[in-house]
Design a protein that fits this description.
Structural class: alpha+beta
Radius of gyration: 18 Å
Largest sheet: 4 strands, antiparallel
Number of helices: 5
Order of helices and strands: HHEEHHEEH
Number of domains: 1
Helix content: 55-70%
Strand order of the largest sheet: 2-1-3-4
Distance between the termini: 53 Å
Number of strands: 4
Shape: globular
Length: about 120
């Protein structure tokens, strides 16, 4: 009887944890808006592991990374922190390269856009 209760408690805990981790429809839309923002910035380069990529390629990459590694992402802030800020293999920060050559961390770039999005509400 005790073993059965432990199994039930473990199963319920797992269900509750996955329910918490899933992003709501509103947060999924916010995440997609951030990705679309990157995708629309044709004048910029997305720097990943020392290589420049078009922002269209970056958007495609971020969508795939979100699909494969986003199980713990429940907010747009989580997306920035866990998916869009650094390489999960090398640990290197992702950067945004501007036309004038300067760079800034993608996390800073995306947080600023998220603030603008939220201010427009």
């Amino acid at each position: 009887m005790m073993h059965r209760r432990l199994v039930i408690i473990a199963a319920l805990s797992t269900v509750a944890a996955s329910a918490r981790a899933a992003a709501s429809a509103v947060e999924k839309a916010r995440i997609e808006r951030l990705i679309q923002f990157i995708e629309s910035r044709h004048e910029l380069k997305f720097v990943r592991n020392g290589r420049d990529y078009s922002c269209a390629d970056a958007a495609q990459f971020l969508r795939k990374k979100m699909d494969s590694m986003g199980e713990h992402v429940s907010t747009a802030h989580d997306f920035i922190d866990q998916i869009a800020s650094k390489s999960s293999t090398s640990g290197q920060l992702y950067l945004i390269r501007f036309p004038d050559g300067r760079t800034e961390p993608s996390a800073k770039f995306l947080r600023e856009e998220l603030r603008r999005m939220d201010a427009r509400k």
